[in-house]
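Appendix B, example 12.
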Amino acid sequence: MSLTNFATWMDGIQRRSELALAEVLPEAGVAPARLHEAMRYAALGGGKRVRPLLVHAAGELAGASPARLDRVACAVELIHAYSLVHDDLPCMDDDVLRRGKPTVHVEFDEATALLVGDALQALAFQVISETPLADDPCVQLDMLAQLARASGSRGMAGGQAIDLGSVGKQLTREELEFMHIHKTGALIRASVSLGARCGAQLERHAIERLDRYGKLIGLLFQVVDDILDAQSDTATLGKTAGKDADHNKPTYVTLLGLSEARALAESLLNEARDSLTPLGAGAKRLDELATFIVHRRF
């Protein structure tokens, strides 16, 4: 498939994900109006929607219906949005800019931002549980558990805790990888798996290949994020550039240097693409997404 076709597909998924999110989020005028306004501010109108893209790409491989994939895409993106709101709080990463606009606690206030994160997380589980998303109800129940694991102390929240405890420390590459497998990688990995589980039951080897791809893509995304943070400006990123270095936080660039971090990104890209090879043409979108993640500019 050509780059133009991929770009068209990606734009289509991003648009439908925005519409789906707008539909599941409470209207801003519904009480409590300020909280609902802030939830929509946090979740809509920005972002690359990488996780929804992965949900749809994996779901297409499994022949899942787009309507089911929209629901799962909303759930993972709501979890992601909540994590960004909380990460930006003064008690965490203390940032004032996200997706090119003031962070939620700046635009509204700290207490509202805290509640926004809480409400977005709860809404994610409502969205993934209130309509049938798998042919077997037991599969959908396990999907709920999988999203919870990816979001909690053994996943994203745990990775953030490790990140906060690593400020000013020199981590080994293994320690840095462990942190990011949880902080960034867990939800990305889950996005691939959850999308695939909305469709027909895949053979074991295919499930294992997709899981390896998801793990590699999660690490790849973080390596590229560290590279962009080191070499891009704030206007391009839509968030404060160089903040990790300013706060003395360990990154792949501070550990390996820019050149070696780039080489690592290319190596992870090749591994991720190789993991898809046995899955054939149905994995084309996943392959293209891996390349997109490496070459993105923000």
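The two ends are 24 Å apart (CA to CA). The longest helix spans residues 204-231.
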